[in-house]
Amino acid sequence: MAIASLGDVDKDGYSDFAVGAPYDGEDGRGVVYIYLGSIDGVVKTASQTIAANTIAPGLETFGFSLSGGLDLDFNEYPDLLIGSYKSDSVAYLRARPVVNVSGGFFFEKPMKGIDLSNKSCQLKDGTQVSCLPYRLCLHYGGEGVNNQISLEVEYMLDSKKNAPRMFFINYEGRNKFRRTFTLIKGATDCDTGHAYIKDGIRDKLTPIVGTATFKLSELTPFMRGLRPIVGPVHSFEDAITIQRNCGGDDVCIPDLQLSAVLNRESYLVGSGDNIEMDVKVFNGGEDSFETTAFLTMPSGVNYVKIERLDTNHGIPVFCSPNLSQRIVKCDIGNPLPAYQQVRFNIIVHPQAIQGDRENLLKALEFMLTVNSTNPDDESFAADNMRKISVPLRVEAELLVSGVQEPETVTYNRSNYKKDSWKSEKEVGPQVVHRYIVENRGPSDINEAVAFIVWPTYASNGDYLLYLMEQPEVEGPGWCRKVKNVNPLNLELFKEKIQGNTEFLQEELDPTSTGSGVGSGEGLLPSSSDEHLLETEYYSGSSVKGNAGYGQGTSTSTDDSESSSNQHHFRHGSQQQHGGNEGHYDANAGVGNNHESTFHRSSSSSNIGTSDSGERVKTSSYYEEKVYRSSSSKTSSASKTSSSLSGGSKYHQAGSSHDDFYGASDDMWDPNGNALPRTKRQAPWMKDFRREAKDCGPTTSNCTIINCTIGPLGQADKFIVTLRARLWIHTLADLGYGDASISSKMVARVTSLPHGVDPSYMRFQATAVKSIINPGDEIFEAKPVPWWVYLLAALGGLLLLLLLIYGLYKCGFFKRKRPKHANGSGPGRMPLNGYDHNDTAL
Question: Measured between alpha carbons, how far is residue 649 from residues 360, 581, 676, 679, 757 in Å?
Answer without folding.
Answer: 13, 17, 19, 11, 7
